[in-house]
Write a structure and sequence with these properties.
2 copies of one chain form a homodimer. By secondary structure, chain A is α/β, with parallel strands linked by helices. The first copy, chain A, is built from 15 helices and 29 strands. At the A-B interface, helix 10, helix 12, strand 26, helix 13 and strand 27 of A face helix 10, helix 12, strand 26, helix 13 and strand 27 of B.
Chain lengths: 561, 561
Amino acid sequence: MKAPAADDELVFLPLGGSGEIGMNLNAYGYGPPDARQWIIVDIGVTFGREDTTPGVELILPDPAYLEDERDNIIAIVLTHAHEDHIGALGWLWPRLKVPVYATPFTAALVREKLREHGLLEKVPLTEIPLKGNLKLGPFDIDFVTLTHSIPEPNGLAIRTPLGLIWHTGDWKIDPDPLIGETTDEAKLREMADEGVLAMVCDSTNVFVEGTAGSEAEVREKLTEVIKKRKGRVAVTAFASNVARVETALLAARAAGRTPCLVGRSMIRIYNAAKSVGLLRDTPQVIDEDDADTLPDENILFLCTGSQGEARAALSRIARGDHRNVSLRQGDTVIFSSRVIPGNEAAIHKLHEQFLARGVELVTADSEHLIHVSGHPARDELKQMYAWARPRIAIPVHGEQRHIREHVKLALELQVPEAIGPNNGDMIRLAPGPATVIDEVPAGRLYVDGANIIPAEDDSLKDRRRLGAEGSAHVSLALSGKNAIVAGPTVNVRGISMPDEEDFELALEKLEDAAKAAFQRLKHQEREDDELVEQAVMRSVRKAAEKLWRKRPLVDVTVLRL
Amino acid sequence: MKAPAADDELVFLPLGGSGEIGMNLNAYGYGPPDARQWIIVDIGVTFGREDTTPGVELILPDPAYLEDERDNIIAIVLTHAHEDHIGALGWLWPRLKVPVYATPFTAALVREKLREHGLLEKVPLTEIPLKGNLKLGPFDIDFVTLTHSIPEPNGLAIRTPLGLIWHTGDWKIDPDPLIGETTDEAKLREMADEGVLAMVCDSTNVFVEGTAGSEAEVREKLTEVIKKRKGRVAVTAFASNVARVETALLAARAAGRTPCLVGRSMIRIYNAAKSVGLLRDTPQVIDEDDADTLPDENILFLCTGSQGEARAALSRIARGDHRNVSLRQGDTVIFSSRVIPGNEAAIHKLHEQFLARGVELVTADSEHLIHVSGHPARDELKQMYAWARPRIAIPVHGEQRHIREHVKLALELQVPEAIGPNNGDMIRLAPGPATVIDEVPAGRLYVDGANIIPAEDDSLKDRRRLGAEGSAHVSLALSGKNAIVAGPTVNVRGISMPDEEDFELALEKLEDAAKAAFQRLKHQEREDDELVEQAVMRSVRKAAEKLWRKRPLVDVTVLRL
């Protein structure tokens, strides 16, 4: 490896996932400050929520800084296939247009995404074998096999002329992951002997004592629980946890039940897993349409929707409006999943809906080991620090609380330096002590239908107002002499009164207010559409507030003859 | 007491709070099925939430059934002054128009509410002394002193010719409640000796082992924690917990800090408490405007907003936009409160905002006894059953899960009968075994500005759509001959595109779609405004969906010259 030049620096820049959950976007830069070369590690999404971001399906990290640096970016390297690590690729790749590298299972899911975006032929996507190596300009990267809750989780050992960065990605230490190899401990020790400059590490479960537990333990427990149940059984889990999906399929067989996949992403991942040679010895699944032909005690539904997503299979079943699947008294839903922060209320509602139907629930709260996390608990973090022995600890992948606590833990473990970054903090890792040398813009973009808009966009403020206060629209037609020749007609949405007649009278009052406002204008002012609109708008808004104590968004259209 | 007639029945009808948290509304009926006399016990609200019910401040139980029975209702009796027990009075009293009974502190807060509604002179409100008695037709009611998280919590011993009902209201067993007397154990034992037909009982904390803990323990802990802190300290708690407010005020004094009340409801309850002789020996509070004159280590803010309510004091402080109060590195916020289910995300956000400012947090999770619940944990429930020895257990005041678990607990405790009702279940308590004999309509009403509307109202569906998808309004003016003389002009709200010019072009496309739709109509169809509106609406909606993958609410105004 080339020796570093005198003004070469190595920097780390998180643009997503530091100070928040999800939406990971990390960049490493190498070179003199005015001519850095970059690699991007992961490019994920967060999901929009019906309650807090209505109409927004996905939330992306704002790549503005990297867009400006586009000519200096060598590649995007993906650690694993979770949506919070790869989900933004289809949306943001056109802004970056650089090659992409991933291991086979990740690549399979990425290809599917790119196909949906019509980008399959455009994006140079290279498969890297597990434990493979990749040379990208000043970066020499080893893929290191770890364990997590999805096939092929990789950490990246990123060698540079100024030192080795150990980027963990998402991981845990699963002694028996069921799918894939165990943690490549030998490689970690080897790295440590070489000397790890900085470890950029998952913080999700820093508050959890002990260890995460193993997929093998879940297999045992889930099989035992399902065997005991009499009526229909539905299991919900993250589809991407292929080991868990395999567990549910095998547990079904052990309990004399035929599995049935319910929900688009469950079927999608099932097929992706099959395509890379996984799930080979699992029982045949039955089509949803045919599930009703089986007796209750011979069916097991494996469903999406563990987070209470309103449109996912499980929520539909809970509401009783799923086309093919119904659950009732004596049936059981098993949540082989955790509650992602922010989803408490939605999951809670789901539980209540099932309970109201007499459906029994089994959750990680009621049954230990019905789920295990894919992220390292405290003892696993300690083990990783013992293995890697980094000079600098950079906790990422967590909210403020996690990152702060992780910094504390690292310092307790005698790591010489620890910095907990916020998105946009550019940290110089070498030369010299780790320091935040710049703060670059870091924000969120919302996928709103086909548009990608900034989270602060006025249209979203308008929507919040519309959602809370409703809307009123005033139309009026003016003659060439600025006389009203038709209207004003007021159209109100999102506000109603118990009595229909009262409402008609109220509309008349708004029309009167519009007319009065127009008539108060001087002749000359009536020439100016904008003045007319402003005056009418203000008057109608005031009248609406007086009538209803609501502040609808009022718009006015002036038609000129 | 008169002997029961042959066809007399005693029924219990919950219309709020059974199968959900909050919004308590209970009714007891006595007499023959076609001529029952009723009393209402409590009439509360639930709070609307910005995320799930935008624009809706309060949610009320739908009293439709009781409205129909209005002539047969003798009175509304209030157990205590929490909003989920009295909050709907001002909104629903005009539909019921019956006398109201409450103990003095409750009455003080009720009067304030009635004043706001302009009902103070209209509502016959009678104060009942603590441990007082009240005779209402066939009902003979003793107020029984309990302990809870507000002054003057009463259970009601409701004697009828067919037996005694023990309606607990909200309670715990606090051996040292600091304000008010301890649980009137003697009275409970006396009731049991007389024979309790049915106990209608709080289920909130049925999943919590042990006991709730005492306000006195919180006083000790909170004082200790505050004394240790160096910078500014803010404490948040429910204002209605006057003992807790007193604790914060006294702890401030003990720590050499001057207390400052922040938030309207904090000041309101403080004054109400003073008005009934409470908070006599607490230190003088400083006005918010003057807080900045004190050194950091000499001020204690007592704030509303423990649930992350966006407009409450604490959220403003967290966002850094409170007029008078700011917190920074080295300051502390103490949450002497619990997380009400549904508020997790809002509170979580609040915590993250404070952490991002370097403010330290003390919560019930990090410090035991910084808060205690006002509701009975399992051991307290067992104690109550041991005292009251009811023949029938009717768990209320809880969601599905709580009520089901409480039924199980009661049966384990050898209560002969237990029924967990849903809102609207009319339960015959006597004669014969407890049975659901009817299901009456029970729903929710939303306070939307000045209007009270059903939760299923179309206006709210429209608002959800507006909030997620935005709106488009088309105006066009037609001549007497049905020719377009102006417009169509399209106005879009809540949808934007990154490029302004693209957006202008998109609007033109929508106008073209509107025009084309009109032109496709036969001459005769153009006479009919509704037909024109429908055709234009559909065409514009389709065009918007194609352009943006959004489905805005499209309205059309046809102006006729």
